[in-house]
Design goal:
With 509 residues, the chain is α+β, with helices and mostly antiparallel strands. It has helices at 3-21, 31-37, 58-71, 125-134, 151-156, 256-268, 279-286, 290-299, 316-333, 347-354, 383-396, 430-449, 461-466, 470-483, and strands spanning 27-28, 51-53, 75-78, 97-100, 107-111, 116-119, 137-138, 174-181, 186-188, 229-237, 239-240, 244-252, 274-278, 303-311, 338-339, 341-342, 345-346, 370-378, 405-411, 416-425. Among the domains are: 107-240, 2-Layer Sandwich (Uridine Diphospho-n-acetylenolpyruvylglucosamine Reductase, domain 3), CATH 3.30.465.10; 244-354, Alpha-Beta Plaits (2-Layer Sandwich), CATH 3.30.70.3450; 363-459, Alpha-Beta Plaits (2-Layer Sandwich), CATH 3.30.70. The chain has a seven-stranded antiparallel β-sheet, sandwiched between helices.
């Protein structure tokens, strides 16, 4: 194809998309913009998209998907702003079009009586929490990620929330949604599909997410990395905003007592926020700069359980006081002590940090500039075995265990646990990047062989997971053929063969 032909094709593409959106203001093909979507902070291979399109409503999304089916154009949905870390927003097929949903940032409605918020995919945590607070509500959120993180993306990707006792199923607080499937059809999941459009202002009760009929259609887009369809709005279950909220710390030189304490607290449903971190991860999370991080790493005890206790609209002070007393008694029985501060971190500072999504730069990359995470589901009592394995492998690979962050988050009322290892590295040092890639590959394979459940198989995990489950993979591929028969939704992202080593020519990409 000659230069003139290429220019003509690009012009034709923009004209077609401009016709669909009735404007070319939300279509971008400038080199610097395409470059920003061509890579992220993962080890995924770099590839530029053909263009970026930013729809503003469901009709435009549906028109783009139908057009993509007619033209065979791959689409890559993106909702959150940069930086990205998982590789799922980088095109894996040449000629892809990025569908950036960040302009769809409307909070459609907040139903205070039924504690439901209906939002579009571009709504961020800081935006939503600010509006919910005006109505005396809040949502159970994950650890603060970054200011540009999409609420809907976080929920669809099943990022663990901080309050396990409110999570009855792994997708809570997500309730129901509307999705434009890869074939261009749209569907409202759950019982909301039987009612008038939610945009009309009808009352929205906490309807069951099952349906139509008894199928859980909303599970098909959960953890799918944009390979099934595009969600254009979703309903989220909210909670009453606490009138009184206190945070406490329980420290230990060994992990086992904190695991025992967690199980007891979860059984009685004491506390709200509940998670365990090692000293390195808490230092990364709270430290504002390198000096503060290093100071915290030295001063903090080896393991810390962070516990939030909240009192809401009815007898808030009494609720907090009786829980504090019972938690202190249970901790004492296990030889542990509840404290209102650890090092120079007090409960109020922890509350401020966990309730804020105002960082433009994720806290994990403050220490060295880059960070690679390995995370999976297991049970809380098994986490110590995984930690020992990672420590041993890291020592063999000459990676300092003193830099590895560990985050243990009970989910679904403690029935499972999100186990996460964070490996900081300097992305400007070629040798560190190569070593980190090798450690990442070997650690992932080792953990998988030890029965770690990678429920969100990003990047190289896809091959590792799907190659071990032929029947499940075949079933999933058939489901994708139903909802995305032309394979235009983020193709190659779930079922693919990727070489871990990125192609380099004498240095970094």
């Amino acid at each position: 194809m000659g230069i003139l032909d290429a220019v003509a094709n690009e012009y034709s593409l923009k004209n077609e998309l401009a016709t669909l959106l009735k404007s070319n203001q939300n279509i971008f093909d400038e080199p610097q913009i395409l470059e920003s979507y061509s890579k992220d902070n993962s080890f995924s291979s770099q590839r530029k998209p053909k263009c970026v399109v930013k729809p503003t409503n469901k009709d435009e999304v549906q028109s783009i998907v139908k057009w993509a089916n007619l033209t065979g154009t791959p689409l890559v949905p993106v909702s959150s702003g940069p930086p990205h870390f998982r590789g799922d927003t980088v095109p894996s097929i040449a000629g892809s079009v990025i569908v950036d949903l960040s302009e769809m940032k409307k909070i459609i409605r907040i139903d205070t009586r039924n504690k439901i918020a209906i939002i579009e995919p571009g709504v961020t945590f800081s935006q939503l929490q600010t509006e919910l607070a005006k109505e005396g509500l809040t949502i159970t959120a994950p650890l603060p990620i970054r200011n540009s993180k999409s609420v809907l993306t976080s929920l669809l990707e099943r990022e663990p929330v901080l309050i396990p006792r409110y999570q009855w199923q792994i997708l809570d607080p997500l309730r129901f949604l509307e999705v434009v499937w890869g074939n261009g059809d749209s569907l409202r999941t759950g019982e909301i599909g039987l009612y008038s459009p939610v945009e009309e202002g009808k009352p929205v009760e906490q309807l069951a997410p099952f349906g139509p009929l008894q199928l859980d259609y909303y599970r098909l887009v959960s953890g799918a990395q944009g390979t099934m369809g595009i969600v254009v709005w979703a309903a989220i279950k909210c909670e009453v905003l606490p009138n009184l909220h206190e945070f406490f710390f329980v420290s230990s030189d060994t992990l086992e007592p904190l695991i025992d304490l967690s199980y007891k607290l979860l059984r009685f449903r004491f506390g709200d926020e509940l998670f365990i971190m090692n000293n390195m991860n808490l230092a990364y999370m709270v430290g504002n700069d390198l000096a503060e991080i290093n100071q915290l790493k030295e001063e903090l005890p080896k393991w810390i359980l962070v516990l939030g206790v909240a009192g809401r609209d009815r007898l808030p002070k009494e609720r907090v006081e009786f829980q504090k007393k019972d938690i202190a008694d249970i901790s004492q029985q296990l030889g542990l002590k509840v404290s209102s501060r650890v090092s120079f971190i007090n409960g109020k500072q922890m509350e401020t940090f966990l309730s804020g999504f105002d960082r433009d730069i994720p806290w994990k990359i403050t220490y060295k500039g880059g960070c690679e995470d390995i995370f999976f589901l297991t049970t809380l009592n098994r986490t110590k075995d995984f930690i020992q394995s990672v420590w041993k492998l890291s020592q063999t690979r000459k990676y300092s265990t003193a830099d590895i962050g560990v985050y243990l988050q009970p989910v679904q009322q403690g029935a499972a646990c999100h186990c996460e290892f964070s490996f900081p590295f300097d992305p400007t040092q070629y040798s560190q990047v190569v070593d980190m890639e090798e450690l990442y590959e070997h650690a992932s394979d080792m953990l998988l062989k030890q029965d770690a459940f990678f429920s969100r198989p990003y990047g190289i995990w896809a091959n590792m997971v799907y190659n071990r489950d032929a029947q499940g993979t075949t079933t999933l591929m058939r489901v994708k053929e139903i909802f995305d028969p032309n394979n235009i939704m983020n193709p190659g992202r779930l079922f693919w063969t990727q070489t871990l080593k990125s192609e380099r020519q004498g240095g970094l990409e």
